[in-house]
Amino acid sequence: MNKTFEICVPCHFGIEAVLKKEIYDLGYEITRVDDGRVCFTGDAEAVVRANMCLRTGERVLMVVGRFFATTFEELFDGISDLPIEDYVTSDGRFWVTKATSVKSQLFATSSIQSIVKKAMVERMKKATGKPTFSETGEDFPFRIFLYKDEVLFTLDTTGASLHKRGYRTWTWSAPLSETLAAALIQLTPWHPDRILLDPFCGSGTFLIEAALMACHIAPGVSREFTAQNWGHIVDPTLWDEVRQELRAEEDRDIETHLYGYDISPEAIDIARKNAKNAGVDHLIHFQVRDVAELSHSKKYGFILTNPPYGERLSKDEDVAGLYATLGEAYGRLDSWSMYVITSFEKACEAIGKRPDKNRKIYNGMIKTYFYQFLGPKPPKRKKVTSDAMSKE
């Protein structure tokens, strides 16, 4: 299939702007931005690159069609009018892996899935002339979204969510997803030549994602995708060609200043194993250390952290005390910035400082706040002119 598609990429609520920039940086035009989703146009190569390169999206969906439906009959007819046969092979296994409905008259998701499957079968019967389908071939998982009665029907090219990079085989208490961690890093002005420190590093996700960025390692370059088996849609050679191109851009020999601390030896052990799996363990310094002992002699560093909060500690007093200790430690650092994601409502009060910025972000179903305490910018380095060099 040699054509241009509309491609939709779901993301965490609140980071749409970050994902939008990522897509622009890949060279594609944005067509639509909704809460928790960014859409763009692209060809088969765009499907490959989006899957391998996007750090903040959850999956890459090809849009099969959009229409409005307020009854199951309209839903059935709308799906029946779509060219399902252009996507599904005659022996393909096709089903609706997930249905969501928000502010729509059709809201029973199991019924939506059932009706859509029946409509797809009827469409395939008419298109192929076959009365039945073995469904013994490749998988074609579809996803359907209803919002204010508008139906968005998509084909999932990714399979396992994009946050599953493959390196995090061990986890610690309530870790952030890799995609959200990458998005939060991109919401800061951090660059690989600057210090980045996480005093509650847990599984090490923030530091590992930062190291991957610093090395220009594409997040999906080492994993597999459902669409790799769809030779009629995506030329199979594209996957190898793009992988080789991305591998050639990697630089694992750079110098970084990444520090991960945690009071738990078990957490530090897990973080080290995950970093080794990602191939960046040589770039991150992990250490068992209490946040009360946090210090650093250099200026203009960044704290980026996901401290324990109500869901992870039993009493508000315990949480408040921990945040107060974090605030005290931050106050001892010279000219640093601090970025904290938390759902603890009294976080800033406990830290003892008002944030310069605050961004609401949903971590799964938990409403969290991304508090940003901005330190001064480092002075610009003086450029060495040719005249100055000639005088030396």
Q: What is the chain-wise order of helices and strands?
A: EHEEHEHEHEEHEHHEHEEHEHEEH
How far do the termini sit from each other? 62 Å
- Structural class based on helices, strands and sheet pairing: alpha/beta
Count of discrete alpha- or pi-helical segments spanning 4 or more residues: 11
Kindly state the percentage of residues in helix.
Answer: 25-40%
- The percent range for strand residues is 15-25%
Radius of gyration: 24 Å
CATH architecture classification name of the largest domain? 3-Layer(aba) Sandwich
Task: Supply the CATH class of the largest domain.
Answer: Alpha Beta
Q: Mind sketching the topology for me?
A:
Elements lengths: L4 E6 L5 H11 L3 E5 L2 E6 L1 H10 L7 E8 L3 H9 L12 E10 L6 H20 L10 E9 L2 E7 L21 H9 L8 E4 L6 H10 L21 H13 L8 E6 L2 H14 L5 E5 L13 E4 L10 H17 L4 E6 L4 H5 L5 E7 L2 E8 L12 H6 L1
Parallel strand pairs: 5-6, 8-9, 8-11, 9-10, 11-12
Antiparallel strand pairs: 1-3, 1-4, 2-3, 4-7, 6-7, 12-14, 13-14
Structural notes for this entry:
The protein has 392 residues and is an alpha/beta fold. The protein folds into 2 domains: 5-156, VC0802-like (2-Layer Sandwich); 178-217 and 253-373, Vaccinia Virus protein VP39 (Rossmann fold, 3-Layer(aba) Sandwich), CATH 3.40.50.150. It contains 11 helices and 14 strands. The protein has helices spanning 16-26, 44-53, 72-80, 109-128, 178-186, 205-214, 236-248, 265-278, 316-332, 347-351, 386-391, and strands spanning 5-10, 30-34, 37-42, 61-68, 93-102, 139-147, 150-156, 195-198, 257-262, 284-288, 302-305, 337-342, 357-363, 366-373. A 7-stranded mixed sheet has the order 2-3-1-4-7-6-5. A 7-stranded mixed sheet has the order 10-9-8-11-12-14-13, covered by helices on one side. A hairpin with a 2-residue loop joins strand 2 and strand 3 (37-42). The chain is elongated and about 75 Å long.
